[in-house]
Structures are given as C-alpha cells and as structure tokens.
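Note to self: keep these together.
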Amino acid sequence: MNKIITLTVNPAIDKSTTVAGIKPSSKLRCTDPIYEPGGGGINVSWVIKELGGTSICMHMAGGPTGTHLQNQLVELGILQQVIPISGWVRENLAVTDTKNNEQYRFGMPGPIVNENEWKNTLRQLESVVSENDFLVASGSLSPGMPVDFFAQVSKIAKKNKVKYILDTSGEALLHGTKAGVYLLKPNLRELAKLCGMETISFMELETVAKEFLNYNPCEVLVISLGPQGAMLVTKNIVEYITAPIVFQKSTIGAGDSMVAGMVFALAKEKSLSNMVKYGVACGTAATMTEGTQLCKKKDVDQLNKWILDNSETSKKLKINT
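Structure:
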C-alpha cells in the first residue's frame, strides 16, 4: 500500500464539554472537559489509525498547546512529522446543552505563521512525498499564510506524481482547485462557490458537477450531501450513494472521517464506487459519537455493510419527480 500523508497547517486542541442549559449572564457548571487532537489532516490520520491503516501526519505546532498536541498523537500511536512554529496551537471549544441536545461550536483563528515557517512546511513536504503516494491537505490556513498555499502544494504533488486530495474552503479552496487536484469533496455550498453560483438544486447537480470537471483539473468529484449521502462524479461515472439513517449525536469530524475512509479505501485499491461508499459509512459513523470524537471501526463496518447491501447503483442519477 502506498504511503498516505496528511497535512494540517492550522491544527487544534479540541475541547468538548456538556452543560445542563445555556443562558446569558450566568455561571454555567460544565462537566469535565475532554481534550483531543484536532484539525483536518490530524483527524484524517486519526481515523485511518482507527480503521487499521497508517499515515504520516504532518502538522505545524508551537507553544505548550503544540507540545500537548504532539503528546496526544504519540499516545494514539500516530506517526507524525512536526513543523515547528513560534505561535501556540489554537484551542477550539464544543459545548453540548444536555437539556435540548444542541451543540455550540467555537472555532479559534489559530496562530500567525510567518513566511519562513510556511515555506519550511513546503520544503519538508517535498522531502516526504514520492510517486503514487496519497496526499491529503485538509483544514483551514493559519493567519499569515498565503491564500494560494494549497496551490503551491498542488505543484509539489504534480512534480512528484502524487494523488492530491484537498479538503478546505473559501479562497484557499478556489486557488487549490485551479492549480489541480486528484479528488475534491465539496458540499453543495462549496461547489456552488467554485462554480460561481449562489445555490445548486438537486435537479441541476449532475449537470453542474460534469460542467465543473470539464473546466477544472480534477479527476474525481465527491459531493458531500450530509445525512443524505454523497454523489460521485467523474468524466464517465455519476453515482448517488445513500447514507443510512442514524441517531446523530455530533457532526464534528464527519467530513474528515469521510475523507479518511475514502483515502484509506483508495490506498487499498478499492473501486471509486466502493471508495465513496466506505467514506459515507465513515462520515455517518462519526455522527454517532459524542462531542469531538470521530468514527469507530465497529460502526463503520456495520454501516458499510448496510450501504453495500442496499445500494442501487446506476450510471445516471435518478431523481423522483
């Protein structure tokens, strides 16, 4: 199996807790917090480890929170390559109100990264990747990083014949996509922005997706539809994968779990169809866990079996009218 490298340039310590009711101007008594490593690529590496695979987890880290993050990854048995920075790794917070099961998520911007630090990241990345590896760049950019950073990562991937999977948002996604990727996993809102549209309806999704592939250097497009599943689109394939209905406890990490499942399946040489099915199983399984926890292999295996047993595949998406 070829190497899987994940890249996280704005990692986090994800802190989660619960409270019985949220109201303003009151001291709220929370349960003991849970601290877990976070950030797109780190989550992907964590899930790959849970699924029985291995990856090289590249990430920036600085300050006491950066040391905490590194120690957590060591405890999880995840191989890491750390790019040192002067700023402290951010801490995010998720609070679940147990009275109504509503979750409040607070994301911090992250440390300012200087030019030497982000250029060092690119140099270290190029020293790690080799032909036919899978590179997953996932998560947001840290403040101070150029908006075309993921486009520069794309150049490294092309030069070294690496399959590049990008999962980010905003301007960073626009620049990275134009530079070229192997696989993208946008949601409907992100795809609309990539296509210069306000919104995309289900009725026009297939047409828009094919048009996107015609004009952008992307081989595989997997459109995340949340609890409804996903849509796989290549130049020759259009397939809708339905997700099983489960009781959702938290949506944190569902997208990262989906990406992890897909790259894990790709590295095991699964078909594109089965790759997306496994990714949907991982993403759905992540919603069954509480707080910032990611998917569990036992849940993934059960959900993937259900998807495989109940999938009705076709080369054309059919919409009930």
